[in-house]
Amino acid sequence: MTIREAAEALRHRRFSAVELTTAALGRIERFNPVLNAFITVTAEQALNQARQTDADLAAGRDRGPLHGIPIAVKDLFYTRGIRTTAGSPIYRNLVPDYDAFAVSRLEAAGAVMLGKLNMHELAYGITSANPHFGAVRNPWNAKHSPGGSSGGSGAAVAAGMVYAALGTDTGGSIRIPASFCGTVGLKPTYGRVSRHGVVPLSWSLDHVGPLTRSVRDAALVLNAIAGHDPADGASSRHPTVDFVPDEGCSVRGLRIGFPESFFFERLDTDVELCVRGAIARTEALGAEIKPVKVPDMAAMNAAGRMILLCEASAMLEPHLADRSQFGPDVLALLDQGRLLPATDYIHAQRLRRQMQREFAQVWSSVDCLVTPATPNTAPRVGENTVKLGGHEEDVRLATTRLVRSMNLLGLPALSIPCGLSDIGLPVGLQIVGPPFEEALILRVGAAMEDGGVGIPPCPVA
Amino acid sequence: MKDWTLIAKAAGLDIPAKDVGRIAPSLNALDETFRPLVRNLTPEMEPALSFRADQERA
Fold first, then answer.
1. Are A431 and A416 a contacting pair, CB within 8 Å?
2. What is the pLDDT of residues A393-404, one digit of tens each?
């Protein structure tokens, strides 16, 4: 069931928000011991909230489509009175006295918060094999990773524990778990959603966004959380719109760019088949699929990595006196960032401006781009390398290869499921648009979804 | 190839030698990709220090 379907049922009194919340808590109780998607479950608070939303609806106080809908947030969003760990012992005692901007927006929209989701330690990695809170497992196959860093968000949405989850994306951390768990994941434009009250990893690369079970559900969540926030220095004043695509929306006449070089190199065979199939389906739905040349994406990834390494190490340096607080993979990245000279950070930011300028030219010939989200499907838990196109690659670098550049450019990017591999793991497709064109990429995603691009529900959902 | 152990020592960083050895290949690989890009930067290309996604439109 999607948010839209649940919202309609709530208004027709087919069930109450309390019943919906109780069912979701039941699923958490049943599946969380295996999936480990939650760090904290706030059952009592959720039921109180659900009772209030039922009372509000009965009294005619309808706060919109998220009213009474069970959701959860990655455990790096500040939640008033609820521990916020960022998946790290550094924050073991952090109990914020205010809510993150996005959390307060969801609360104002009537969503029922079920708890805090497990994640890769400090959001600095893509496996969500958290050494302090345990590895998150993929609901499609518990031997596999859900991706990360918002791995708990992807797993909880795919397994039907919640209808939507908030994640953050610094180098693919919403789109990767969406791809591996078969959910929709949206990284909005940089500045579209406030980062206020979110534990930072990299100030100039961090983005906040939703993971959901349908494109229109992602748009509903974006409607609630988008908008200017003076408390976030990077928050944009760009006008917000209704992001929810119309029923019967179409891709007819849209020029969809197909960047074959780089984005279609060194792919898992199943990924390539599914994505090419989805693109062919989109063409059949009326889109003009145009081959397009893009700037040097490998160079963008190098600049993006440089910025991330430097900013993350600066952010976490005060805690590095006690190295035992970090898992080995995160510690290795933090050490790398400390060894890089300031000049390289400045150069990377100069390259970023140059690349942003070059990439803007792409939008003169196409309206959006479609690429695979990840070159691979979910690796097994603990797998450190992946073989793609005959090359053995580091699993983190391979998995972030097609998504990282969009953080450098700040562009909106949507991951939607587009097929299953031969062993039944989801494959994700990425739709990228010009700055602040979330409505466009959501429309393309919804039209593809309506047109048959997608996967069956997760077996445990 | 840079001597990352010396760099760590010169910067006064308390990174154990075995940990520096473990990260050296990643740093070298990044440096190898990054260095040629920097050579092509022109002086008027200023850093995007306060980054905005809509700063550069076609």
1. yes
2. 999 999 999 999
What are the tokens at A177? 């778990």
Look-up of token digits 């521990």: A83
Contacting residues for A6 by C-beta, under 8 A, at least 6 apart: A20, A68, A69, A163
| Chain B hits for A351, Cβ within 8 Å | 37-38, 41
Strand (E) or helix (H) holding A47: helix A43-58
List all residues of chain B from 19 to 48 with a beta carbon under 8 Å from chain A: 19-20, 22-23, 26-27, 30, 33-34, 37-38, 41, 45-48
- Virtual CA dihedral for A142, A145, A151, A157, nearest 10 degrees? -40
Residues of A tagged active-site? 74, 149, 173
Query: Over the stretch A206-226, which tens digit does the pLDDT of each residue have?
Result: 999 999 999 999 999 999 999
B18 contacts chain A (CB < 8 A): no
The answer to whether residues A310 and A344 touch, using CB atoms and an 8 Å cutoff, is yes
State how far the alpha carbon of A352 is from the alpha carbons of A76, A302, A398, B51, B53, in Å. Answer: 27, 10, 21, 9, 11
Q: How confident is the model at residue B52 (pLDDT cuts 50, 70, 90)?
A: confident
Q: Minimal Cα–Cα distance from A41 to chain B, Å? A: 36
* A–B interface: beta-carbon pairs under 8 A: 112
The strand pair at A70-74 and A164-169 is best described as parallel
Sheet holding A426-432, edge to edge: A38-41, A112-117, A70-74, A164-169, A207-212, A184-187, A413-420, A426-432, A368-372, A255-258, A288-291
CA A373 to centroid of chain Cα atoms: 11
Structure tokens at A50: 């659900």
The tokens describing A313, both together, are: 């190490």
Helices (H), A317-341: 328-339
Q: What is the DSSP letter of A15?
A: S
Nearest partner of A96 among A84, A105, A104, judged by Cα: A84
Cβ atoms within 10 Å, residue A123: 31
ipTM beyond 0.90?
A: yes
Beta carbons of A360 and B56 less than 8 Å apart: yes
